[in-house]
Amino acid sequence: MKRIVFGALFCSSLLLADANSYIVKKGDSLSRIAKNHNTTVDAICAMNQISKNSTLRIGQKLKIGSGSTNASTARIAGDSQGGIIHAVIDNSSLQNALSTLGSKSQPIDTKSFTSKDIKFVSNPKLAKLPKVAKSKIGTRYVWGGTTPAGFDCSGLTFYACRLNGINIPRTSIEQSKTGVPVPRNALQPGDLVFFDTSKERRGYVNHVGIYMGDGKFIHASSAKKKVVITSLNSPFYSSRFKGARRVN
After folding, report:
1. pTM: predicted TM-score of the whole model, two decimal places
2. Residues ≥6 apart with Cβ < 8 Å to 89
3. Could you list the pLDDT tens digit for every one of the 248 residues in the chain?
4. Which among 120, 71, 67 is positioned nearest to 97, based on CA atoms?
5. Are residues 15 and 110 in the same domain?
6. CATH assignment of the domain containing 235
7. Which residues are catalytic?
8. What's the domain range around 210?
């Protein structure tokens, strides 16, 4: 089995060593920038850890790949939570991979991977997230809140990441699409954990917390109306667990 290497930091060292930078100008869009630099929107998004729907800011610095490399990336459908896995595939096998996938991406079952097949690369900043969040224990729950005056679930994760120089989207569903997927048995402190807490169990992410280690996570709970620490193995959250991501 091809070794699949997860982690934006590791991928960056392989794929972006010769990357150029581009400063966003008025009227720019991802598609226009990709076309002007002979690359793709997917490639730009992967290099900069942004989504296709991200809003570009004038003056924003983007990494733009240039030159040829010995590896190519194929965008493949991610885990059962709709995440994305970036597989590093050598050029000789890329065409075979694409022909196997067909014109539409097929889901990959990450449960079949073993520790021998996957290498997770952690961002040292992630270990600081639980400490930041823990300092906000008891802070009241405020829908849409992103400051110590009050947090909602994704507001707390957004705040903790931003304080440590990690850029992630604002909402839980968008946060669940950033970084790389991590199996539940490989969680490390600082990983983001996601849930479907809707009464109807609609199947999509609507809640997020920060894994602290020892089977616990910290989150802004609308039910408790404050920031609390909860066991990931509690019946409610264990049954509604939708996946985890390691962001950079």
Report:
1. 0.54
2. 2, 71, 72, 73, 74, 97
3. 444 433 433 333 333 334 478 899 988 988 888 888 888 888 888 788 788 888 888 989 888 865 333 334 433 333 333 333 333 334 434 444 444 444 343 444 444 444 444 455 567 899 999 999 999 999 999 999 999 999 999 999 999 999 999 999 999 999 999 999 999 999 999 999 999 999 887 788 999 999 999 999 999 999 999 999 999 999 999 999 999 999 98
4. 71
5. yes
6. 3.90.1720.10
7. 153, 207, 219
8. 124-246
